[in-house]
């Protein structure tokens, strides 16, 4: 027998209060089964689980607070003078774009958390519950939607401090954030798919970078695509990120760009329709 | 409790699950009567967990059929899910959340309202002696506490069928006894329990019927009495002072007990199987053997009369021990 099995642990069974057989029996008899929860209610409960996790490990909010602040400051002062004459001029153009870029980048952490979470024993329990199957995944994304909202508010606050003045006013800004969070929710299904498909956290991170960097940088976030070579313009002008950043930029400027908003929503719907079922297929097989 | 007309909680026929080249479950037939504790006994990698996972709708069988209270585990998975609970081999609770949060979360997922979920989780934590640890994250719980919160989570809505996959592996004896008490309380209230274990004494303590599984197949099935009778009531373990006396001791045992004698790797120890029916006879025989040994001048340092170990059961049933060198599968 190894020595370690005799090592005292912090809380041995000896210190525990005894199990009360009578109250246990009463509980078992008294338990009557309520009807199963609706799809929405189950999803919200899983969203609550995500929020509880944030409560227990608040450090994980680092990526939706410090990271976005860094992005705004860095790109405003790095490109501002060269591209628009001054950082203050540039931020009028940049802020909605960098907001889109940062939040879309943050979505990739969904895949990592799905990947690390899915191997745990608690998933066996979740999957033996008589509930709407996608609610576990939707719950993740609802929790993440809160994170995206926090990131957006943080960035806008920094932006306003640096001199960003949205012409769309409060309503325009709100509509912009709503569209962005909705799009990110839909886009995240790519990451839930990768989170379930790939075997390690590192590979999820690696693949996510490969997708997210070209997708966000090859867009109109930083500059107008007019000066780009034709083949690149073809890509950039049709990228979902370009449509989204144009839509958010327009909304915050008070233009209500119906076309770009429709494009963004269309892409969002496509992401859910394609990657949602793939995610659920993988989840059911895991 | 809702019972299927046949009175069976679980009925499987030719259940098969293959992982790559390995047949983890190679045709399992089970008939588990409702309202009892049914033990599935076997070594690591025998296919116990894989079988449980198929019955709990976590894995799809590759062949064969399984019904839980008359519902097909594949075609009527939702029906099955609303009747069963699973306590997996590793804590099936969220380690990042507190005890209360875990139970409230599950309560909500099982359809309870906010208040009802809170109330029920409070009562369960109280009954399981976890009230003090209710606000602590489960990752800071001891092994025994984890098992308790895990089982508490499984009976949030009293299930018709509870799967307990190796519920006491890694627990100290005291925590193990407490888990046994919980299992007894649960089954008294009408819940059927399917218990997998590596320990014969655990199956012996709790189960009314036992299936012995090896390499994905049921190799023996019956009541405890039937199973034991097939193996012998117990074993005499002897530890001698002098290794040179071992051949003589073995000879004496063979003569007095008329039993198979096994020489252990340790040169001063040997084991003999005694008795074929009840342990009373085994004790008598063992006493007689000790007397004979003393008369022959063999010095016995240590002696014990035990139930057959799982190893011995296996040896008797299969002709190979639990640590078979090949075909090891960790399911």
Mean of all residue-level pLDDT scores of chain B: 85
Following the backbone from N to C, one meets helices and strands of chain B in this order, namely: EEEHEEHEHHHEHEHEEHEHEEHEH
Oligomer: heterodimer
The largest pleated sheet of chain B is described as:
6 strands, mixed
| Number of separate strands of chain B | 14
Segments of chain B where pLDDT lies below 50 for 5+ residues? 324-331
| Content of β-strand of chain A | under 5%
SSE arrangement of chain A, N to C:
HHHHHHHHHHHHH
* Cα-to-Cα separation, first versus last residue of chain A: 36 Å
How many alpha or pi helices of chain B? 11
Rg measurement of chain A, Å: 23 Å
Helix content of chain B: 25-40%
Low-confidence stretches of chain A: 1-14
Mean pLDDT of chain A: 88
Shape of chain B: globular
Largest interface by Cβ-Cβ < 8 Å: A-B, 45 and 65 residues
Task: Describe, in plain words, how this protein is organized in 3D.
The complex is a heterodimer of chains A (286) and B (331). With 286 residues, chain A is mostly helical. Chain A has one domain. Chain A has 13 helices and no strands. Chain A starts with 20 loop residues before the first helix and ends with a helix. In chain A, 41% of the residues are buried. By secondary structure, chain B is of the alpha/beta class. Among the domains of chain B are: 8-83 and 159-229, 3-Layer(aba) Sandwich (Rossmann fold); 233-307, Alpha-Beta Plaits (2-Layer Sandwich), CATH 3.30.70.600. Chain B contains eleven helices and 14 strands. A six-stranded mixed sheet of chain B has the order 6-7-8-3-9-10, sandwiched between helices. A four-stranded antiparallel sheet of chain B has the order 2-1-4-5. Chain B is globular. Residues 324-331 of chain B have low confidence and may be disordered.
């Amino acid at each position: 027998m190894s020595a370690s099995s005799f090592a005292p642990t912090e809380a041995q069974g000896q210190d525990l209060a005894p199990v009360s057989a009578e109250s246990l029996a009463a509980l078992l008899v008294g338990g009557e089964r309520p009807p199963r929860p609706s799809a929405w209610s189950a999803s919200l409960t899983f969203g609550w689980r995500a929020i509880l996790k944030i409560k227990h490990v608040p450090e994980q909010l680092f990526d939706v607070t410090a990271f976005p602040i860094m992005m705004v400051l860095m790109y405003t002062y790095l490109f501002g003078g060269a591209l628009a004459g001054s950082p203050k001029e540039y931020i009028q153009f940049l802020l909605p774009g960098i907001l889109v870029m940062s939040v879309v980048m943050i979505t990739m952490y969904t895949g990592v958390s799905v990947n690390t979470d899915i191997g745990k024993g608690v998933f066996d329990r979740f999957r033996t519950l008589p509930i709407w199957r996608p609610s576990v995944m939707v719950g993740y994304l609802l929790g993440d939607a809160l994170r995206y909202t926090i990131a957006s508010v943080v960035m806008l606050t920094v932006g306003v401090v640096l001199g960003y003045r949205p012409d769309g006013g409060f309503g325009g800004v709100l509509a912009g954030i709503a569209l962005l969070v909705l799009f990110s929710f839909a886009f995240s299904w790519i990451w839930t798919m990768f989170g379930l498909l790939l075997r390690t956290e590192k590979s999820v991170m690696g693949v996510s970078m490969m997708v997210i960097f070209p997708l966000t940088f090859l867009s109109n976030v930083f500059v107008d695509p007019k000066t780009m070579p034709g083949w690149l313009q073809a890509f950039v002008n049709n990228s979902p990120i370009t449509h989204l950043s144009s839509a958010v930029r327009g909304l915050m400027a008070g233009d209500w760009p119906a076309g770009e908003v429709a494009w963004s929503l269309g892409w969002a719907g496509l992401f859910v329709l394609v990657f949602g079922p793939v995610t659920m297929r993988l989840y059911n097989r895991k | 409790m809702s019972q299927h007309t046949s009175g069976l909680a679980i009925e499987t026929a030719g259940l098969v699950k293959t992982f790559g080249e390995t047949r983890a479950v190679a045709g399992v037939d089970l008939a588990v009567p409702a309202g009892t504790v049914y033990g599935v006994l076997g070594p690591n990698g025998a296919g116990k967990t894989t079988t449980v996972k198929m019955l709990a709708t976590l894995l799809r069988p590759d062949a064969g059929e399984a019904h839980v209270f008359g519902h097909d585990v594949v075609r009527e998975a939702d029906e099955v899910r609303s009747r069963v609970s699973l306590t997996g081999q590793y804590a099936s609770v969220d380690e990042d959340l507190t005890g209360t949060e875990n139970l409230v979360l599950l309560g909500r997922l099982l359809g309870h309202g906010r208040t009802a979920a809170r109330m029920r989780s409070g009562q369960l934590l109280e009954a399981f002696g976890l009230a003090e640890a209710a606000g602590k994250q489960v990752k800071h719980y001891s092994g025994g506490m984890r098992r308790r919160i895990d089982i508490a989570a499984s009976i949030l809505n009293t299930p018709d069928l509870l799967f307990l996959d190796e519920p006491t592996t890694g627990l100290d004896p005291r925590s193990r006894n407490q888990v046994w008490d919980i299992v007894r309380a649960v089954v008294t209230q009408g819940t059927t329990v399917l218990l997998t274990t590596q320990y014969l004494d655990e199956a012996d303590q709790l189960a009314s019927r036992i299936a012995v599984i090896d390499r994905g197949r049921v190799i023996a099935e019956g009541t405890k009495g039937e199973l034991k009778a097939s193996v012998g009531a117990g074993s005499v373990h002897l530890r001698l002072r002098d290794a040179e006396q071992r051949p003589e001791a073995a000879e004496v045992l063979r003569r007095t007990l008329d039993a198979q004698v096994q020489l252990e790797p340790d040169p001063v120890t040997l084991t003999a199987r005694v008795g074929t029916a009840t342990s009373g006879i085994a004790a008598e025989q063992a006493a007689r053997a000790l007397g004979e040994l003393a008369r022959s001048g063999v010095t016995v340092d240590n002696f014990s009369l035990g139930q057959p170990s799982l190893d011995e059961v296996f040896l008797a049933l299969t002709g190979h021990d639990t640590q078979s060198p090949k075909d090891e599968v960790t399911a």
